[in-house]
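so the lab meeting is tmrw and i was supposed to have these ready like two days ago... anyway. pasting both below. for each one the top line is the aa sequence and the line under it is the C-alpha cells. i havent really looked at them closely yet so no promises
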Amino acid sequence: MQTNLEDLDLNLLKLLRVVVETRNTSTAADKLGISQTSVSRGLAKLRETFGDQLFIRKAHGVEPSELAEKLAEAAENMLTPFANVLDSYQSFDPLEYSGRIVIAVELSLLETFGQGIYRALNKALPNACLELIYWQEGSLQDILERKIDYMVHYSPYPLPQELYVHHLSIIKVSLVARKNHPVLSQTNELDAIAHLPLVKLVSDAVNIKHDPYDELYLDKGYTPKVALRTHSIPIAIDKLEHSDAIKFSSSYIMSLSDKLACYPLPKIPANLREFSISGSYLQSKRGYPLNQHLHQTMQSFFDSVIQPPMT
C-alpha cells in the first residue's frame, strides 16, 4: 500500500464514494458520466494507493472492503464542505439571503453610526437576521471561532494575523465642551486647559491604561484630571453640558446635543488630531460572497458619511 496522499486526485475520492455506493463499475460510470474504462483506471490507481483488497470482484459487480467503506465515508465528510462552499459562491443572492449575520462594533462607534449601519445592512440584505452588538471581552475569540462575521473598530486596536483589516474612514478630533465655555472660548493652549476636568468614554475594545491623550498630558508634565469615565454617551453629554469638563472627541457628538460646541485642539502631534476606523473579518473568509458583500456595504456606508463641521 502506497499512502502518498499528497498526489491523490480528489476525483478518485468521488469515484471511490460512488463505487462503494453502487457496487458496480458500469453503474458508477453512468452516474459519474464517464466511461467504464475510466472507472477501471481510477480503481487501479486507488488500489495502488490503498492496496489490492480495496474492492473484491464479484460476478455482478464489486464488493467494497471495510477500508473502502470507511474511506468513502471520510470522502463524503471531506467533499461535502467543498460542495457547500462552491454552492454558496454560485447561488449567493444578497436580496434572498436569510441567514444570521453578526456585526460587532466598538461601543462609541455603535452609538454614533449604529443606526446608519443598520439601515445600510438592512437595505443590502433585507431578509437576513441581523445582530448588531457592541465589541466586548470575548468578541475577538468569537470572530476567530466564526461566531461574529464582521467587526468595526478603531484602527490602532491590535489584531491577530488571522483577521483581514481594511480602512473605512478618518474621523477628525476636536475639543468638545459646553457652548460659551469660560476657558475654551478664550484659549486652547494646553497649559491653560490642563486643569479642566476630562470626560472619557470607556470601551472594552480599548485599553484605557494606554489612552494617548493621557500620555500627552503626562509627557507635558500635567496630571489628567478625569472627572468621568462611562460607557454611556448620554451620560458623557450630560456631564459636558452641565460643567466645565471637556472631551477629546469628534464633531459627531454635537448631533446628539445642541448645547455643545467644538473648539480647536491645542498644539498636539498629528496622530492625535484624527483617528482611523477599520473593518475586519477572517482572512479565510475574504473570498466568501457574503463577506465581500458586507465589506462593500460597510465601505459604501462610511464613504457616504460626511462629518459635521467643527465650528
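ok protien two:
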Amino acid sequence: MACDAGEICLVNGQPAGEVSARDRGLAYGDGLFETIRVAQGRLTLADYHFARLERDAARLRIALDLPMLITEASDLASRLGEGLIKLIITRGLGERGYAPSDGPATRIVLGAQLPDYPAEREEQGVVLYPCVTRLALQPALAGMKHLNRLEQVLARAEWQAPFGEGLVCDMLGKPVECTMSNLFLRHKGEWVTPEVIECGVRGVMRDYLLAKLAAQGEPVRQRAVELQELLDSDEVFCCNSVYGVWPVVGLMDKTWSPGPFTRQAQALARQAIL
C-alpha cells in the first residue's frame, strides 16, 4: 500500500505510505474501513461513521482505539478542508495461519480529493446495470463495512458508462444494494429499503435517512424486496455518504423520473454532507 500524489497518509499516527507484509488486513482482509466526506474542514456524519466502526470492531473482536482515531481523522479533516478521509483498521500483524493475533490493531488514516462524479447524476439520475454477481448469505458479516470486498469488485467490473451504478442481488435473486451504495424504493405510498441481515452493507447515509425520513413522518420499512416489486415502484434512489442521493431513472426495461419524494431525500442528504 502506498499513497498517491496529493494524498495524506498516517499509519498508526505517523506519516507513512506503507504497511507490513505481515499485516492481517493485507493477508486476509481482516479489518474494517470507513469513507468519510470532509466539508469545510469537518467530518460529515461523523457520529454515524464512528458508531458503525465501533460496533463492527466489537463484532470482529478487534481492539479499537476510537478516541485516537477520531483525533487523527479530525485533525486531518481540518488540514484537508474539502475531500475524503478513508479510515482503515486491521487486526494488525500476525504470523502464518488464520488464528487471530493478540497484537495491537493497525490504524490507517488517508486523506484524498473527492471523486469526480458527473454532476448530472444528482439532477438527472442514473441507470442501474443488473449485475450477475450475487452476494453470499452470511449473517455473521452482514451489515459490516469489512475489508473483504471481492463481491463488489466483481460486480463493479461488470459495467461501465453510460450506467451510473449496478444493482446487486443476493443468492436468492432479491435486490439488496448497489455496488457502492444502498437502495430505497417508493412502493405503495411508503419508503422501503432492503434489509441487510444476511448480506449487504448497513450504510451510513442509509441509517441517516432512516432517522430523518421517520422524523418527517415518512418511516422506512426495512425488509426483503423482490425484483418485480422494485420494478413496480414509483420512485427509486441509491445513496451513500460521499455523493448523497442519486435518483434511479432506469433498470432493465423500466424507466422512472426523479420524483418529489426522492428530491426530499436529496435535500436531507445535502444537509448532512455539504
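from a quick look at the 2nd one: The first strand starts at residue 8 and ends at 11. Helices lie at 24-28, 46-60, 66-80, 120-124, 150-156, 204-215, 227-231, 260-273. will dig more after coffe
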